[in-house]
Amino acid sequence: MVRQFLPLNGLRAFEASARHLSFTRAAIELCVTQAAVSQQVKGLEKRLGVTLFQRLPRGLKITAEGEALLPTVSASFDQMATTLDRIEAGQVRELLFLGVVGTFAVGWLLPRLADFQRRHPFIDVRVSTNNNRVDPAAEGLDLAIRFGSGSWHGTEAQRLSEAPLSALCIPKLAEDLRSPADLAGATLLRSYRTDEWSTWFAAAGVPPADQVNAGIVFDSSVAMMEAALQGLGVALAPPSMFARHLSSGAVVQPFATTISLGSYWLTRLQSRPVTPAMRAFSDWIVAQA
């Protein structure tokens, strides 16, 4: 196929302007003048015979024609950038896009990730963290480490480890905790799951009438543990993910009672083909776990 001349400068100016809805901010990103960006977009509009932006007193408004063009242009530039990233000093590098629930990333993966890099120096891992709410397809993830039952539609899941929850707090707060029932007078920290503390109290033998279900709600155990470290209350979190805090004495586990409400899983969309990088990471993390 003979490919017609592509106005790359104009397309780049259009794409940046569409993201910022501003010629000025696009010019800052592209390290050119605002006038240059405006002229490049005008040239592209003239070639296409359409208007891509409405010029407003305070910025830009993308037109229907611009909306139709933007996804293709953005995806093309992203693909080119990804390919260029893979080629470094004549050595083709593989990229692995990995989504990880924040607790697992901080408490388990990051301390071990250097080992994977040593074993696979030509795989570049791009880690994005989340609060266990992730859309692998929309985010372009090769693999995602998630917490739950292992059942997600259209997803292949491989169990990595359980993560039992227990009460964790700073030593000063633990001094007033003689039995699990004493937690009724403490500030409780929890995730968005409302049944966590009631389940833990039941496992600890605390009668329902003495249980306290209210508490400060966090969207991640990492933030919850930071609050616990600052003495804001007692966290219900997985001790295995905060082993460093426990070994240093920054936090303690006042009671042995634990509950299991799920596991960590390595997941892949069934529609996503397995690449060598995905296979290498899967084999490594399963062996580590």
UniProtKB/TrEMBL annotation:
Keyword tags: Activator, DNA-binding, Transcription, Transcription regulation
Domain HTH lysR-type intervals: 6-63
Presence of the UniProt keyword Isomerase in the record: no
InterPro entries named in the record: AmpR_PBP2, LysR-type_TF_proteobact-type, LysR_HTH_N, LysR_subst-bd, WH-like_DNA-bd_sf, WH_DNA-bd_sf
GO MF annotations in UniProt: DNA-binding transcription factor activity; sequence-specific DNA binding
GO biological process, one term: DNA-templated transcription
Pfam families assigned: HTH_1, LysR_substrate
Family from the record: Belongs to the LysR transcriptional regulatory family.
Designated name of the protein: LysR family transcriptional regulator of beta-lactamase
